[in-house]
Amino acid sequence: MSAPTLSPYRSRPSATRTRPAARPRERAIVVPARLEVGDNPASAVFRVARSRGPIGRDVAAEATGLSVATVGRQVSALLDLGLLRERADLTPSGTVGRPRIPFDVDHETFLTVGIHIGAVATSVVASDLRGRILGAIEIVTPESGPDGADALRSIASSAKAFVARWHRRRPLWVGVAIGGRVDQAHGVVDHARLGWTGAQVGPIIGAGLGLPVSVAAHVEAMAAAELLLAPDRAEHDATGETEMYFYARETAGVSLAIDGRVHTPAGGPGSIAHFPTGSSVQCACGATGCLEATVSDRAIVAAAVSRGVVDGSGRVTVADVVAAASNGSEAAQEVLTARARALGRTVATLRELLNPDRVILGGQAFTEYQPGLAHVAAAIGERSRFGSKDIRVSGFGNRVQQHASAVTSLGVLFADPVKAFAQIP
């Protein structure tokens, strides 16, 4: 199992022209998130432009399997919308005719807004149309009543102020990734950790930014980021493949992608919070050994405090426990190793049950303490007949939450760019 690596993002000069900002709306347009590889010609052309651009129409036709005529029609439609741009400066010398002019994604004119609402912290990111993150901020998730309205309005206000930094770019869409049970059709969320019931996440965030909005369960969004944003998956044909994504940090969750589409159950995502690990940790549900009670950040902090690794009189985070382990504290190392092994056993059990073609591990529980990966791998090897084969750690590292929100903001555009653009005010 390889350690996570972060792919460098190359920046290019910003466009100098100014586009009009979207007009505020009193009622938000809530559109179900599209966590999938698009299967229409426009999405195929847009995808190859994102991964290979600048690219010629003949090369795009070969890459997508579409005819040159079909590619030409899609390129023309996307040029008219401004999602693509032609690069006449890159036209090979001696060639004649517009079809020879390379085209590329216009990654300088637009942006989308991604918001990941966590139990403790909320991140806001701005992304270009290639899926590259332009910038990000993190705020403390505001406290609110059971409807979450005050917190959501505060988050929307912070996001709007953040996006205003890119005054030369036109925002197109906002995507929200959040835990709990998500009604994608209406953007409504029940979130036990935040104490929210029927929270109008989509309507409030969308109205606050004046943009169409999509809301997705955060683990499913992370699985979609692997499908749509990971550099090594840019043109991968996922047909016939099943991919299991396992996430652990403050919460734990699992999601499946089948045939290039993240499975989103109608009743909301399932939960592995109370999956048995065999530990002796007491869970709030009354049982012992439940997964989140054993491996969550708050559980690790509690274990470290009880063993005297860190002083519990002030605010303590997992980063403090990791720092202690890195500085040679054997007790801290034992706490983090126990978590790594519990995670490895759980991953192995789910893998044996679901038998996916590929497993991806994401979240700071895997990436924040690098020595723990060897223990994860060892525990998987002990429990799974497949060992660590076809298992890797997400390349998004500690920014996995940011990419989950980014892909939620981009998924509808990626899946059907022409139809999506028609819904933008």
UniProtKB/TrEMBL annotation:
Compositionally biased region (Low complexity): 8-21
Q: Which organism is it from?
A: Rhodococcus rhodnii
Q: Write down a Pfam family by its short name.
A: ROK
Which Gene3D superfamilies does this chain map to? 3.30.420.40, Winged helix-like DNA-binding domain superfamily/Winged helix DNA-binding domain
Q: Where is this region: Disordered?
A: 1-24
Q: Which PANTHER family match?
A: BIFUNCTIONAL UDP-N-ACETYLGLUCOSAMINE 2-EPIMERASE_N-ACETYLMANNOSAMINE KINASE, ROK (REPRESSOR, ORF, KINASE) FAMILY
Q: What is this protein called?
A: ROK family protein
Which first-to-last residue range defines the signal peptide?
Answer: none
Which family does the record assign? Belongs to the ROK (NagC/XylR) family.
